[in-house]
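Problem statement: downstream parser choked on a complex file, so we are re-checking the raw output for the zinc ion run. The parser issue turned out to be on our end (a line-ending mismatch), but while we're here, posting the original submission so the record is complete.
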Amino acid sequence: MAGRPVLMLFVDGLGLGPADPDANPAARAATRWFRVSAGGRAGPGQAVAATDATLGVDGLPQSATGQTALLTGLNAPAAVGRHVNGWCTPSLARLLHGRSVFARAAAAGKRATFANAYTPAYFQGAVRFKSVTTTAMLSAGLRLRDLDDLRRGEAVYQDFTNRSLAERGFALPPVEAEEAGRRLARLAGTHDFVLYEFFQTDKAGHERAMDRAVGWLEGLDRLVTAALEALRGWDGVVLLASDHGNVEDLTTSAHTRNLVPTMVWGEGAGTLAGRVRAITDVAPLILDLLGLAPALAFGPAGRYNSG
Ligand SMILES: [Zn+2]
């Protein structure tokens, strides 16, 4: 079970929206990879799966259940009875424990890491609420990256530029999108599974901030391009996934029930993307690429049949 390494970019709140530049920043942004979010063509070597994020549950899909679904393959909103916003809940933590791609990779002796850097407040216990990814990492016994990692170029901040850190008084140099992409590529070269998480798209969607949304999509585009260039010749797979729609329709400040793009780059990208119909298909794809079998069978409503 040699497997292939995976670099996963999680982009919060990015759906497939209308080809309307008044509503959809992806229709305005000058990008190679995000035109697909506004009905455009995929870029060279990019395969895109239009992916269901609603998972048969009424209401607007939300981040905590969506991210749990992405990291475990479980229908988290069905399992807990609703779409859960924001922070990880005890029920979601139970779903993540032993079942997230981090836990599965770590248990199999694979090198898995979360590329994002955390501020000292996390390590001082000053942050009471934890995200799904933080919970999954801690639950898998994996180390969170800190600002020293970021200084050494071995992490990326959530806004990838360090701008929001500088605004909060942390003395860290600004990072170009290309440099952030190269850092992710370096981590991907030394790990089996790397996740990077970006949520400024969701924030811009809630604030209906067109110019900012366009800027983030163009920055992310440069990040992806630089990562792919740095990974030329690598035998792994780059995935970009989202938990629900939002920024692709700025006529509303809420999330949307739109399909979301799951983007795949690497050998066999088209075939791999063809296996993704819903956000619950992403974790099984990652496990398969890593050479790990999906160990547990799922019953109706996303509940485990046993265990
Ligand atoms: Zn949101």
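For whoever reads this later: Residues 13, 63, 202, 206, 246, 255 surround zinc ion (CB under 6 Å).
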